[in-house]
Write a structure and sequence with these properties.
Porin, 8-stranded antiparallel barrel, 1 helix, 11% helix, 63% strand, elongated
Length: 198
């Protein structure tokens, strides 16, 4: 009787452990960001009145912004997961490099191996206070698998991007406005990413 009870408990623990492990998954992505609008605000040294100007955006594949993103997620329900993320991103116009740390939520239409919508909220850390002080990014989009294997899925994601940068203490972005005090930079656009879920 004791042996039977021990076998049942071990089997339950093993099965429960396997089930718990299956709820965790990771993703790694390469991102290509295409800004459509950049709004720069600053104060005049003399009047301290805020101004806003639209900065031009570069056109062309991989010329404006790209990044890497890694997420570690827990499947809370069959169709909903929550996770943490870390990553890095480069903007070419203006020239900014940043690190990211934040959270991600995904809602799956069928299950974790099929189409989903995702919401990302992350803090952006400056590697140079001359570029920006701190930042926040919000992303919302759609993802779907293009290749399914036993150990991983290859996914494509399409999403909107909203980046907000606090420029307190940073250098002016435009040499023509050298006598001003930078305040904020807002970048809006869309992005495409390719990555693996494993």
């Amino acid at each position: 009787m004791k042996k039977c009870l021990i076998i049942i408990v071990l089997a339950a623990m093993t099965g429960g452990s396997a089930y718990a492990q299956s709820k965790w998954y990771s993703t790694g992505e390469i991102e290509f960001i295409f800004p459509r609008a950049k709004e720069y605000s600053y104060d005049d040294n003399n009047t301290n009145i805020g101004y806003k100007v639209d900065l031009p955006t570069k056109e062309g594949f991989l010329l404006d912004s790209y990044g890497l993103l890694y997420t570690y997620n827990y499947l809370l329900f069959r169709k909903l997961s929550l996770g943490v993320l870390g990553g890095a991103q480069v903007h070419n116009n203006p020239d900014i490099f940043m690190l990211k740390l934040g959270g991600i939520m995904k809602f799956f239409f069928v299950d974790e191996d099929n189409v989903y919508v995702k919401l990302i909220l992350a803090h952006e850390f400056s590697t140079s206070k001359n570029d920006f002080n701190k930042g926040t990014t919000v992303r919302f989009g759609l993802g779907f698998p293009v290749l399914k294997k036993e150990s991983f899925n290859l996914n494509v994601n399409i999403f909107t991007v909203y980046d907000y940068f606090d420029l307190t203490g940073a250098n002016p972005l435009d040499a023509a406005l050298a006598g001003h005090i930078p305040k904020t930079l807002i970048i809006r656009g869309f992005a495409l990413s390719v990555g693996a879920k494993f």
